[in-house]
């Protein structure tokens, strides 16, 4: 006897469902600072990511609204909002990836280091909670100054006996996104095909785009490379000034943050050859933390890749960024151990 069409359809539905839940593992992603300028669009983009099964949105206030709004989108993940410190434990428990855009943004005239004291304290508190409630999570640090907040997080985790250098990342993806966009504009190539590694740190001259390694190659003249380098380094300031007192990059940052978190999730899920630039513990230079290409895997960092061949201009840039980056790293370490 032939089975009815409706039975066949419902069996197909169940088969599809069980296949898809087996094929894509459950992954909880927590966004800390989810009600902010970056946090809201980042939460939206993470809701669109089919690799996420549970999306946990935490902030000191405002998250129930953001969570209710985002939760109506008909994609895979279940969304929960948590507001206030007494809900932080629940927000974090079981998280595979924790993205941190919590803190205050830069205003015109402020440098990233001006933000230091406020954001350093916020990052310290949130990292201590991660050490307690989800010590195995991959941490994606967006809060600035990244050159200092990553070393702060490392110190806090070390003190709690939970530090794993493979699981802590400073998100520098926005520098890569900008370098790709600006390069494509000048080289007149398809932006979707462009690759540009960006190394060093994540503030001013510590951001070192390696246009000599950019693909597709375009043989741009030196003055254009110099201008592209400067524009990439000053990309944050360009947005801060254009927003004229209404914050810093939020939409492009949310895109970059979502891209990096997606790469982390793919790595965790065993997708091969996932490579992104990130500010991590490193032995690529004499500095303890440095941004370069990183291969992501099931445990976070699988391999920190070297710098490759640098042009003379990039070699000079590398030497001149080291003292500033070193000072920012030391400032973070000192803060974590003093306060
Ligand atoms: P925002 O002020 O719009 O949002 C920050 C959010 O963090 C607010 O909702 C606030 O309530 C929340 N927050 C404050 N203390 C918190 C705590 N203890 N726990 C949880 N949430 C807390 O700022 P915006 O524009 O979203 O920027 C956030 C951070 O990202 C800033 O530090 C900014 O400098 C940084 N940033 C980083 C970039 C990067 O490339 N890595 C690029 C652009 C900004």
Automatic annotation (TrEMBL):
Superkingdom: Eukaryota
Gene Ontology molecular function: any one: L-malate dehydrogenase (NAD+) activity
Lactate/malate dehydrogenase C-terminal domain span: 172-335
GO cellular component: cytoplasm; mitochondrial matrix; mitochondrion
Binding positions for NAD(+) per the UniProt entry: 33-39, 59, 119, 142-144, 253
Gene3D superfamilies linked to this entry: Lactate dehydrogenase/glycoside hydrolase, family 4, C-terminal (3.90.110.10), NAD(P)-binding Rossmann-like Domain (3.40.50.720)
Active site per database record: 202 (proton acceptor)
Catalytic reaction(s) noted: (S)-malate + NAD(+) = oxaloacetate + NADH + H(+)
Binding, substrate: 106, 112, 144, 178
Signal peptide: none
Any one GO BP annotation for this protein: malate metabolic process
One Pfam entry name: Ldh_1_N
CDD domains: MDH_glyoxysomal_mitochondrial (cd01337)
Ranges for domain Lactate/malate dehydrogenase N-terminal: 28-170
Main localization (coarse): mitochondrion
Localisation per UniProt entry: Mitochondrion matrix
PANTHER family in the cross-refs: MALATE AND LACTATE DEHYDROGENASE, MALATE DEHYDROGENASE 1, MITOCHONDRIAL-RELATED
Family: Belongs to the LDH/MDH superfamily. MDH type 1 family.
Protein's recorded name: Malate dehydrogenase
Taxonomic path: Eukaryota, Viridiplantae, Streptophyta, Embryophyta, Tracheophyta
């Amino acid at each position: 006897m032939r089975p009815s069409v409706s039975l066949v359809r419902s069996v197909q539905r169940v088969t599809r469902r069980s296949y898809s839940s087996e094929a894509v593992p459950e992954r909880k992603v927590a966004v800390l600072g989810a009600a902010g300028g970056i946090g809201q669009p980042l939460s939206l983009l993470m809701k669109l990511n089919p690799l996420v099964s549970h999306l946990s949105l935490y902030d000191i206030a405002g998250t129930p609204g953001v969570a209710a709004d985002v939760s109506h989108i008909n994609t895979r993940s279940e969304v929960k909002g948590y507001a206030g410190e007494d809900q932080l434990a629940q927000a974090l428990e079981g998280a595979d990836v924790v993205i941190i855009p919590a803190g205050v943004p830069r205003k015109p005239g402020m440098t990233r280091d001006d933000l230091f004291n406020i954001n350093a304290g916020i990052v310290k508190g949130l990292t201590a909670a991660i050490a307690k409630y989800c010590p195995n999570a991959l941490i994606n640090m967006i809060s600035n100054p990244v050159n200092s907040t990553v070393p702060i997080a490392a110190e806090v985790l070390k003190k709690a006996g939970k530090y794993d250098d493979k699981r802590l990342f400073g998100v520098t993806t926005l520098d890569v996104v900008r370098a790709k966009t600006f390069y494509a504009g000048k080289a007149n190539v398809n932006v979707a095909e462009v690759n540009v590694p960006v190394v060093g740190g994540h503030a001013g001259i510590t951001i070192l785009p390696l246009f000599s390694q950019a693909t597709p190659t375009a043989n741009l003249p030196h003055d254009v490379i110099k201008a592209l380098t400067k524009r990439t380094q000053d990309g944050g300031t360009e947005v801060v000034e254009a927003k004229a007192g209404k914050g810093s990059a939020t939409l492009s940052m949310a895109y970059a943050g979502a891209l990096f978190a997606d790469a982390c999730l793919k790595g965790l899920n065993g997708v091969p050859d996932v490579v992104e630039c990130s500010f991590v513990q490193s032995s690529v230079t004499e500095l303890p933390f440095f941004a370069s290409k990183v291969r992501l895997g099931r445990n976070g960092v699988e391999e920190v890749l070297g710098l490759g061949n640098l042009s003379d201009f990039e070699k000079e840039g590398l030497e001149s960024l080291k003292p500033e980056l070193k000072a920012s790293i030391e400032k973070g370490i000192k803060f974590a151990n003093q306060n």
